[in-house]
Every structure is written in structure tokens, then in C-alpha cells.
Amino acid sequence: MGVCSFIFGFGFAFYWGWLLTCIYLVIFPLMMCLGGIMAATYSGGAVASNKAYAQSAGYAEQALQAVKVVHTYGNEKLEYNNYIKYLQRAKD
Fold it and tell me: Angle 80-81-86 (CA atoms, 0-180°, nearest 5)?
């Protein structure tokens, strides 16, 4: 359905405004290239961000599961600083 709409839309545009459609046909490949570059950039950043958030969540879960050991040795501040370090990686 989408492909048919695209083809008939071009046919309709050529019939009513052929000059504007010709200009669009010149610009269309450039728009496609820029859209592909933008999608690749976004997906790369999203993957890195999700990985960093997963690391920080895993670190927090590990510290919460071992809360007795962390409290016994007084490492709350160390665990907090390490968690913030992982979150900063995700933020960057």
C-alpha cells in the first residue's frame, strides 16, 4: 500500500506540478543519503548509551545484592562513586 501511494503520488504530482516534482527528484537522493547517515549516527549512539546504562544498572544491582558486605566494610562511598562513574559514561 505504501509503495502504491508513493508511485501514484509521484504520478499525481507530475500531472499537477511537474516543475516542482522535477526539483524534488533532484533533491530526493540527497535527502535519502542524509537520512541514512542520520539513522546510522543515531543507532550507534543509542547502542553505546544502552550499553553504558546496562553497565551502571548491573553495578548497582551487584552492590545492592551485597549490601551487607558493602556496609560491613564501609564501602558505601566507594560504591556510590563507582556507580556515578558508570552513569557519567552513559551521560557522555
Answer: 100
Question: What is the C-alpha separation between 51 and 5, in angstroms, rounded?
Answer: 39
C-alpha cell at position 17: 506540478
Q: pLDDT confidence of 60, banded at 50, 70, 90?
A: confident
Instruction: Please name the residue that has the C-alpha cell 562511598.
Output: 77
- pTM metric for this prediction: 0.47
- The DSSP H or E segment spanning 63 is helix 18-65
Of 4-13, 32-41, 53-62, 63-72, least confident by mean pLDDT is 63-72
DSSP state of 66: T
**CA–CA dist 49, 26 (Å, integer):** 36
Angle at 22 between CA 16 and CA 27, to 5 degrees: 130
**Can you tell me the distance from the alpha carbon of 85 to that of 91, in angstroms, rounded to the nearest whole number?**
10
The predicted model gives 9-34 an average pLDDT of: 83
